[in-house]
């Protein structure tokens, strides 16, 4: 494992479980299933993949692919492409806290296709606690200020 990836070793693996989403433009909150894979491959980069689906009827909801790029033991660059038509560059840090380390990241740039919904910013937090990958995503979109959007606690299904 590359030394820059070592501080993120707890995040490696395949994670699966349920989350809840909502946003000011939606009538009600919703539940969803999700699988996230975070993998290393010998370079100072982590591959990130996420797919989610409706728990009501198993229809696909969202796909994300990208890379977490550690720049130091604490600093991180993130590049993500989301299937709904936008790409993001985020900057983040591995932060030590009383409950353990967690990753905080915020967008620096959002690019979108002509048909994609307007997303202007995101703030993400990821933590591993008791062998669960937990995250929360806040989003500014469709003329709204930053607001909670998605959160989940996913179980590790493989290393």
Describe the structure.
With 159 residues, the chain is mainly β. It is built from no helices and ten strands. It has strands spanning 13-21, 30-40, 46-54, 60-70, 75-82, 86-97, 100-112, 119-129, 132-141, 147-158. A ten-stranded antiparallel β-barrel has the order 1-2-3-4-5-6-7-8-9-10. A hairpin with a 6-residue loop joins strand 7 (100-112) and strand 8. 22% of the residues are buried.
Give the gist of this structure.
With 159 residues, this protein is mainly beta.
**Any idea what the CATH architecture is?**
Beta Barrel
Physical arrangement of strands within the biggest beta sheet: 1-2-3-4-5-6-7-8-9-10
Estimate what percentage of residues fall within beta strands: over 45%
Largest sheet: 10 strands, antiparallel, barrel
| CATH H-tier superfamily | Calycin beta-barrel core domain
> So what's the CATH class?
Mainly Beta
State the distance separating the first and last CA atoms: 14 Å
Rounded mean pLDDT is 96
Number of helices, where a helix is a run of at least 4 consecutive DSSP H or I residues: 0
Q: Can you write the helix and strand succession as a string?
A: EEEEEEEEEE
Q: What do we call the CATH topology?
A: Lipocalin
Strand and helix map with partners:
Layout: E1 13-21, E2 30-40, E3 46-54, E4 60-70, E5 75-82, E6 86-97, E7 100-112, E8 119-129, E9 132-141, E10 147-158
Antiparallel strand pairs: 1-2, 1-10, 2-3, 3-4, 4-5, 5-6, 6-7, 7-8, 8-9, 9-10
């Amino acid at each position: 494992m590359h030394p820059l990836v070592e501080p993120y070793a707890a995040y490696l693996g395949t994670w699966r479980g349920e989350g809840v989403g909502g946003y000011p433009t939606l009538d009600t909150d919703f539940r969803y299933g999700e699988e996230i894979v975070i993998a290393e491959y010998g370079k100072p980069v982590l591959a990130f993949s996420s797919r989610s689906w409706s728990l009501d009827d198993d229809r696909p909801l969202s796909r994300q692919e990208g890379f977490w790029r550690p720049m130091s033991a604490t600093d991180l660059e993130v590049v993500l492409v989301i299937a709904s038509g936008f790409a993001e560059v985020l900057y983040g840090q591995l932060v030590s806290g009383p409950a353990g380390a967690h990753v905080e990241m915020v967008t620096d740039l959002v690019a979108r296709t002509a048909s994609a919904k307007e997303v202007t910013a995101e703030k993400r937090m990821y933590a591993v606690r008791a062998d669960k990958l937990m995250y929360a995503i806040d989003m500014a979109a469709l003329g709204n200020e930053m607001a909670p959007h998605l959160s989940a606690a996913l179980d590790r299904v493989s290393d």
